[in-house]
Design brief:
This is MARVEL domain-containing protein. Keywords: Membrane, Transmembrane, Transmembrane helix. The protein is mainly alpha-helical. It has two domains: 139 residues; 28 residues, no CATH class. It has eight helices and no strands. Helix 4 runs antiparallel to helix 5. The radius of gyration is 27 Å and the shape is elongated. It starts with 6 loop residues before the first helix and ends with a helix.
Length: 206
């Protein structure tokens, strides 16, 4: 089974790249923010780790589901579920960013320049994840407001039944039952009429 994250998957489409980079950027962001929080003995900006974790987890889940489906760029965006989760995570990240910028002590800009720089590097990843969620939310809102937009979400996946759930995609197929004559009727409702037509043709030949 191929890995969830690989160069082929990352370069598959723009949604693939954005979701994958949301996952890849979590480890360095976690490291920078955690060190800043421990060294400063303050909650900010380390509190940004929490929304970053759920943002990366959401992207990882969507990539795992899309790999199971095998569709091109679908299953990563395009449904009301995607819109709600991306919107909630984006707002959460933005709130943490604003709180960090406002609460960060002004004296640190002079006394702890190195610590401020480290925290700033960590918030860059937070801003990146916020931009990713903003991209998907803006795209879905544009789709919803586009002329002729209906219930068939354009960027969603019909094979995934227009939703990110469940993880295991099952496509229901009905195998036709082969009749005694060696053929399968196209429609069960016409089986009787087809057999009647065959009998009529046989009577005419006789």
């Amino acid at each position: 089974m191929p890995p969830i994250l690989s160069f082929k998957i990352i370069s598959k489409s723009v949604p693939h790249s954005l979701r994958a980079l949301s996952v890849i950027t979590f480890p360095p962001a976690f490291l920078f923010l955690l060190i800043t929080g421990i060294a400063s003995s303050r909650v900010n900006p380390a509190i940004c780790i929490l929304p970053l974790f759920f943002s990366s987890l959401w992207s990882l889940f969507l990539l795992a589901n899309e790999r199971t489906c095998g569709c091109a760029a679908s299953g990563l965006t395009g449904t009301p579920m995607h819109l709600l989760v991306d919107l909630a995570l984006g707002i959460w990240l933005l709130v943490c960013l604003i709180v960090t910028w406002v609460v960060f002590p002004q004296r640190w800009w002079h006394d702890y320049v190195g610590l401020v720089m480290l925290g700033s590097y960590g918030t860059v990843f937070v801003m990146w994840n916020f931009a990713v969620h903003l991209y998907f939310v803006a795209g879905q809102v544009y789709e919803a407001l586009a002329p002729g937009a209906g219930a068939q979400y354009p960027s969603a996946c019909a094979q995934c039944r227009y939703g990110p759930f469940p993880l295991r995609i099952r496509i229901e197929t009905r195998s036709p039952v082969v009749a005694e004559g060696g053929y399968a009727p196209l429609l069960d409702g016409r089986k009787g009429s087809v057999e009647q037509e065959r009998r009529d043709v046989g009577d005419e030949v006789v």
